[in-house]
Structure formats: C-alpha cells, structure tokens
Amino acid sequence: MVKLAAERDHLKVVADQIGVPTPASFIADVTAEVIRRRSCDPKLAGWSGILNLAPSGETSWYGYTQAGLKLLHEATLAAGSNTAARPRPEWQVHRLPTIEPVPASSFRCRANGPATRGSTCRASSRCGGCTCQPGMCCCKAVLRDA
What we know:
- The protein is mostly helical.
- It has helices at 2-7, 24-40, 61-79, 122-126, 135-145; strands at residues 10-14, 18-19, 59-60, 98-102.
- Helices cover 40% and strands 10% of the residues.
- The strands form two sheets. A two-stranded parallel ribbon has the order 1-4. A two-stranded antiparallel ribbon has the order 2-3.
- The longest helix has 19 residues, at 61-79.
C-alpha cells in the first residue's frame, strides 16, 4: 500500500473484510507469558493444547490502510531532514492519497478468507489471563516489527 500511495493520488481499499493485525512481537510476548505462567502456576502445569491467538479489536483493510499510511506519513514529516529518524526509505509516505472504502466485490480477484474474522483473546485468557493490545497499538507494532 505504501508503494501504491507513492504512485497514485487515489486508492480504493476493501472495507467489508474485517480482521485484526497481529504483530510478531505480540505473538512472542504472549507465548513467553504463557510459558512463564505455566511454569509458575501448578494449575497450568499439565495444560497443553492449541491456542488461537489474536489481539483484541478489529479493523478493515480500509481502516488498516488509513491508520498505517497516516502513521508513516506523520513519522516521515516529523523526521524532517533527519534521515536517521525517518521510516526506512521504502516505507516513507511523503503525501497521503485519498483513500476510498469499497466492497470486496468491486475487485475482480477477491482475497481468500472470510468476510469477518471476529477476534478475541478468550483462549489466551483461559490459559493464564494474558492481556491484548488494542487494535491501533497492533497497527503500530506491525509497522515497527516489519
């Protein structure tokens, strides 16, 4: 999307597919916390299973694009001439295009996956009460982790 933002004045982005960005640092932090709690809590010592982990909150591709491009644009502008403070070159957003929300059906090739992915942290709560980051924090973390 950053490349398209640099090339175009107007972007059409799917607004009816809902999910939540899941940064690598979130997965690592929750995994470490589950391991720590499992080793410290006798009630969890014998626990095993598969976790379906996702941060709380939700957004569409449109919302994620808006937030991500805005964060990168603000970081690019805030850095000014300080190249060390700027996002890496391929992630710099010098101007924001207009972003139009559209249904997935407006594209010839539809992305695979369900239209809605309701994301919660119930599984991680059951195995030790790990807390989740709100959606915007996840957007920032995904950009930081990339």
